[in-house]
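Structure in, sequence out. Go:
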């Protein structure tokens, strides 16, 4: 009997709210937004705006005196502003009318309401365009920074600097050995020499890998534009590889062997391009494109590295320190 009475109380309390299509925490809460502004569903936007202005002026907190009156006015003013925000927007008004007409769709009302409140105000397409553009600019700018640092480095290394000076010796002599009015000062001669050396390094030195001269083709926007072409090219290459080497069992060429070596070493194309040609020839002579040969070679390299570290005095000192003072050990110093 007691359970029946409890259920009856709940039903009598909740049913009027559900029937009216009003839910706590959504839109105007248990109040009807139209009633708050004193308008109807058929009212135009101008009528809704006019009703809002009149009520906002009437219940503005600054126009009321006394703490109690001011508090009542603030609550009323907030309710009026909320109702106006909901009814002035066509999409929000449509969702609100749907709630009034379909009170049984309880969860759908919460979804519609909070989806609109949480959803970003800016068009997602604009966000994507701006994001990709920023990434592309940063990518291109950082590429030029890496290239500039590589050029400056090679210009300071004696080996490459002397080679560049040897190639451009005639031009350097012509610039710095002028006579008469056109004769350059020592500072100007040094500046001209540096410019010529840099120019020779840029033109003659083939810098590869991550420090290579950046190309507009490498930025994200161009890569996205070329994505269909890239995918198609890869599919054609994969089909040819499968047909030639997996089905017809043709022998690998030098290019294919280098690709397999790079794949075994898990290096990117930029990283592998930075490897010296002599080293690549050594890899080919060792037949590192064969997986079993590469595995044995890699194990040998790791063993040699461990042996070299074990014999290194600094590494021995580090191991002693970690043994005595490393994690998990408590000493008087702690």
């Amino acid at each position: 009997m007691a359970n029946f009475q409890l259920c009856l109380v709940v039903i009598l309390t909740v049913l009027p709210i559900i029937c009216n299509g009003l839910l706590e925490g959504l839109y105007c809460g248990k109040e009807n937004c139209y009633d708050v502004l004193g308008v109807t569903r058929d009212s135009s936007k101008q009528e809704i705006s006019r009703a809002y202005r009149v009520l906002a002026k009437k219940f503005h907190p600054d126009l009321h005196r006394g703490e109690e009156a001011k508090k009542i006015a603030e609550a009323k003013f907030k309710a009026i502003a909320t109702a106006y925000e909901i009814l002035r927007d066509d999409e929000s008004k449509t969702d609100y009318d749907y709630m009034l007409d379909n009170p049984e769709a309880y969860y759908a009302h919460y979804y519609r309401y909070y989806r609109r409140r949480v959803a970003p105000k800016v068009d997602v397409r604009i966000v994507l365009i701006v994001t990709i553009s920023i990434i592309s600019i940063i990518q291109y700018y950082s590429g030029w920074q890496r290239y500039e640092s590589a050029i400056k480095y090679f210009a300071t290394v004696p080996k490459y600097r002397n080679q560049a000076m040897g190639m451009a010796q005639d031009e350097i002599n012509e610039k710095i050995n002028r006579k008469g009015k056109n004769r350059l000062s020592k500072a100007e001669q040094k500046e001209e020499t540096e410019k010529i050396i840099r120019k020779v390094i840029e033109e003659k030195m083939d810098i590869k890998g991550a420090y290579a001269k950046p190309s507009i083709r490498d930025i994200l926007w161009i890569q996205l534009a070329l994505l269909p072409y890239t995918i198609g090219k890869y599919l054609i290459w994969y089909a040819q590889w499968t047909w030639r080497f997996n089905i017809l069992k043709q022998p690998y060429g030098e290019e294919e062997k280098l690709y397999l070596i790079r794949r075994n070493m898990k290096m990117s194309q930029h990283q592998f391009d930075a490897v010296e040609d002599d080293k690549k020839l050594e890899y080919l002579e060792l037949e590192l494109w064969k997986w079993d040969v590469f595995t044995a070679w890699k194990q040998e390299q790791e063993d040699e590295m461990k042996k070299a570290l074990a014999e290194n005095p600094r590494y021995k000192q580090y191991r002693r320190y970690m043994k005595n003072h490393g994690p998990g050990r408590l000493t008087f110093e702690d």
